[in-house]
Amino acid sequence: MSLAFTNSCTLTRPRSFGQKEACKKLNISNNTSLLATPNSFVNGMRVCVDIRWIGTAGRSKQLPSSSKLQMSFSPNPRYKVAVLGCTGSVGQRFIQLLEDHPWFEVVAIGASSRSAGQKYSQACRWKQSTPLPNYVKNMEIRECKASQFPDVDIVFSGLSNEVAGDIEEEFAAAGKAVFSNAKNHRMDPDVPILIPAVNANHIGLIDYQRQRRGWDKGFIVTNANCSTTAMCLGLKPILDRFGIEALIVTTMQAISGAGYPGLPSMDIIDNVVPFIGGEEPKMESESLKIFGQLEMEKIVPASIQVSAMCNRVHVLDGHTECVSLKLKTRATPDEVIHSIDHFPSFTRSLKLPSSPERDVVYTDWIDRPQPRLDRHTGNGFTVTVGRVRECSVLDIKLVLFGHNTVVGAAGGSVINAELCVSKGIIAQKAKESAYAVSHK
Ligand SMILES: NC(=O)c1ccc[n+]([C@@H]2O[C@H](COP(=O)([O-])OP(=O)(O)OC[C@H]3O[C@@H](n4cnc5c(N)ncnc54)[C@H](OP(=O)(O)O)[C@@H]3O)[C@@H](O)[C@H]2O)c1
């Protein structure tokens, strides 16, 4: 995957590598060999390349700068990845989202010693609303030891908090890029809590993390807690435009947020449980790190007062959150809505495979967002904001909604990994791999 950053790439296969279009654009013969050397301009998966053509005598000739082309590329073959905690609520979502992923191929899966040695279809009680993908049915579950995963570059972790800390560290030390959903490493000063549309520049911490821990290739990137992710994404347009001094958030969180099998039915049917262990402090601390500024080798937390009240409700997937905000610059509800409507679609601009059309959308339905109606917006990757109105205590109040196991967990990790691939941060073992290049 180093085309954009270190290597040059010979475009030799006209159809698959887009040479035909390149030749057409440069007005040279179709079967001329082209040598494309990436220059320093890299914009996500688009890379501006200097094209030279190689004459019959093997000498190359630099074309004028006006003939530079924008090319897009994708890793070929795909990165080999593993899913740890593959049987759980988040793990299953990984298995679902990674089916036919253009950049990532699941070649290994891991879970506890209770499941290890069994085929996935035997060990897993599949709870997703799509069929269990064929690719994983007969895959054997491994124990979560790095030595058992020599064949992967990237590890997606849906491990429970009880075990995630040590296991994820062991895999990163063994050279894997680890994308974690657990709380264990989130607040480590050298580990980013990454949400690309909010704080993509925090991946700058990875270099420091590698230096500090003596890891040459591996690293850990975490997701926020699922309710924090929805809140930070939903509020980002408002933070950027008006600044936020203080906020009070009350959540109504889905059952799947508690993992599988989660709460006993006797506890949650016909009920609201006004307690989720550890959730309120997580929302209050992680949001400040996410909204913080990367300065040199650390994140300086944002200076916002945050008060969270978290409730478990009788909903399957998706967290709904009522938020009241005190803004730094006063704004009307219309101005707040305008900031959401005009929030740039950051992940889409990077052309990441999982990026939704919009990272955040505003709904003007008077009674939305609602879990049943809004959980599939942007395939679960988009946060929906609605009911923006004046608050008689603070300045503005609103309701936001995000899918807890997609954007708030597995999907968030997948898009984080896509961002890291697009920035050339992840080493790929299959160095000899070809790069599919196509003219954009
Ligand atoms: N659910 C959400 O919406 C959500 C959102 C954001 C973050 N998270 C976080 O994501 C992580 C996973 O959550 P979840 O809801 O998917 O939990 P879960 O349904 O309870 O799944 C836990 C997974 O961890 C595995 N595991 C347990 N003990 C293990 C051990 N000793 N060694 C190796 N694997 C072990 C389990 O495998 P077995 O089946 O073999 O026991 C299972 O695959 C947690 O850290 C959670 O806080 C969850």
From TrEMBL:
<keyword id="KW-0521">NADP</keyword>
<dbReference type="GO" id="GO:0046983">
    <property type="term" value="F:protein dimerization activity"/>
</dbReference>
<protein>
    <recommendedName>
        <fullName>Aspartate-semialdehyde dehydrogenase</fullName>
        <ecNumber>1.2.1.11</ecNumber>
    </recommendedName>
</protein>
<keyword id="KW-0791">Threonine biosynthesis</keyword>
<keyword id="KW-0486">Methionine biosynthesis</keyword>
<dbReference type="Pfam" id="PF01118">
    <property type="entry name" value="Semialdhyde_dh"/>
</dbReference>
<dbReference type="GO" id="GO:0009089">
    <property type="term" value="P:lysine biosynthetic process via diaminopimelate"/>
</dbReference>
<feature type="domain" description="Semialdehyde dehydrogenase NAD-binding">
    <location>
        <begin position="80"/>
        <end position="206"/>
    </location>
</feature>
<keyword id="KW-0560">Oxidoreductase</keyword>
<dbReference type="InterPro" id="IPR036291">
    <property type="entry name" value="NAD(P)-bd_dom_sf"/>
</dbReference>
<dbReference type="GO" id="GO:0051287">
    <property type="term" value="F:NAD binding"/>
</dbReference>
<dbReference type="GO" id="GO:0009086">
    <property type="term" value="P:methionine biosynthetic process"/>
</dbReference>
<comment type="pathway">
    <text>Amino-acid biosynthesis; L-methionine biosynthesis via de novo pathway; L-homoserine from L-aspartate: step 2/3.</text>
</comment>
<dbReference type="Pfam" id="PF02774">
    <property type="entry name" value="Semialdhyde_dhC"/>
</dbReference>
<dbReference type="InterPro" id="IPR005676">
    <property type="entry name" value="Asp_semi-ald_DH_pep-lack"/>
</dbReference>
<comment type="pathway">
    <text>Amino-acid biosynthesis; L-threonine biosynthesis; L-threonine from L-aspartate: step 2/5.</text>
</comment>
<comment type="function">
    <text>Catalyzes the NADPH-dependent formation of L-aspartate 4-semialdehyde (L-ASA) by the reductive dephosphorylation of 4-phospho-L-aspartate. Mediates the second step in the biosynthesis of amino acids that derive from aspartate (the aspartate family of amino acids), including methioinine and threonine, the latter of which is a precursor to isoleucine.</text>
</comment>
<dbReference type="InterPro" id="IPR000319">
    <property type="entry name" value="Asp-semialdehyde_DH_CS"/>
</dbReference>
<keyword id="KW-0028">Amino-acid biosynthesis</keyword>
<dbReference type="GO" id="GO:0009088">
    <property type="term" value="P:threonine biosynthetic process"/>
</dbReference>
<dbReference type="GO" id="GO:0050661">
    <property type="term" value="F:NADP binding"/>
</dbReference>
<comment type="similarity">
    <text>Belongs to the aspartate-semialdehyde dehydrogenase family.</text>
</comment>
<dbReference type="InterPro" id="IPR051823">
    <property type="entry name" value="ASADH-related"/>
</dbReference>
<dbReference type="InterPro" id="IPR000534">
    <property type="entry name" value="Semialdehyde_DH_NAD-bd"/>
</dbReference>
<dbReference type="GO" id="GO:0004073">
    <property type="term" value="F:aspartate-semialdehyde dehydrogenase activity"/>
</dbReference>
<dbReference type="InterPro" id="IPR012280">
    <property type="entry name" value="Semialdhyde_DH_dimer_dom"/>
</dbReference>
